[in-house]
Amino acid sequence: MNPKNALDKLPFSSINKLNSLVENRRAYTLHDFELNIFETYEASMSVPLEFSELVIINMIQGKKVMHFQDKVSFDYFPGETLLLPEYTKMSIDFPEACMEEPAQCTAITIDAKKVDEVVNYLNEFYPNRETSTHWSFQLDKFHFSNSEELCRLTNRLFQVSLSGDMHKEALADLVLRELLIRIMQLQGLLVLEENTAGNSSVFTHIKQYVRENITEKLSVDKLCKRVGMSKSTLSRAFKTEFGISPIEFVIRERLKYAKKMLQVSKSVKEACFSAGFSDVNYFIRIFKQREGLTPGEYVLKH
């Protein structure tokens, strides 16, 4: 089974062109960023790695075990992304890499001026009025699962970077800007999903209301009434802050609750209705679409 929102595999190096069997590197340098493709062909432990710029790391094939200073080590698989500040020291294990199934990952290093340019532009022209916060990367949310949008944009950035298109610099710039915005939005959503009892933003109130009424019918009208906002204003605020609609947020909260119920009750039907879904077939369909496996398969796995 393919991991959820895994990126497309990139062409591997020819064996006769390998400089190393561990973290063999190919680099594609553009004006504001560099795409590095790493391949490892043998099991290896404690491989050091560090970048001098902000870096987006994507696992394409295989498995890594990531070790950082002052952080718990974790397994790293396709379908996941890391966003790390400059000069972050890493130590990496490749427990399963071999010639038949090499590990492949990418590292997109981004010039600090480009990062500042995108963040400053957003803060000037698209300020977060509802939360009075500034656009920025949440570097404590450095490890996250790919969304469909992140998957699409990252694949597109790979495609442009490896192409011979005479306009590749302009095309890559557009894709990179959107990718950075989507990462900030996704990180903002991760922050919202945490327990932020001291946060009195509109979004926190909606989150609490949704969680307290997860079994009920929850319409945009109800959410608007709860926070005293019009439909258009609330929808625009969600789209700006997180890149999703209010109803999409409700669906994600329902699925998150359903997964907890599946682990406890092991009943697909009970999880469905407890999470506020009114139709079991729809629940099974959307669960598989979002999670990459059916509720029944999720129960067996957990």
From TrEMBL:
<protein>
    <submittedName>
        <fullName>Helix-turn-helix domain-containing protein</fullName>
    </submittedName>
</protein>
<feature type="domain" description="HTH araC/xylS-type">
    <location>
        <begin position="204"/>
        <end position="301"/>
    </location>
</feature>
<dbReference type="InterPro" id="IPR009594">
    <property type="entry name" value="Tscrpt_reg_HTH_AraC_N"/>
</dbReference>
<dbReference type="GO" id="GO:0003700">
    <property type="term" value="F:DNA-binding transcription factor activity"/>
</dbReference>
<keyword id="KW-0238">DNA-binding</keyword>
<keyword id="KW-0805">Transcription regulation</keyword>
<dbReference type="GO" id="GO:0043565">
    <property type="term" value="F:sequence-specific DNA binding"/>
</dbReference>
<dbReference type="InterPro" id="IPR009057">
    <property type="entry name" value="Homeodomain-like_sf"/>
</dbReference>
<dbReference type="InterPro" id="IPR018062">
    <property type="entry name" value="HTH_AraC-typ_CS"/>
</dbReference>
<keyword id="KW-0804">Transcription</keyword>
<dbReference type="Pfam" id="PF06719">
    <property type="entry name" value="AraC_N"/>
</dbReference>
<dbReference type="Pfam" id="PF12833">
    <property type="entry name" value="HTH_18"/>
</dbReference>
<dbReference type="InterPro" id="IPR018060">
    <property type="entry name" value="HTH_AraC"/>
</dbReference>
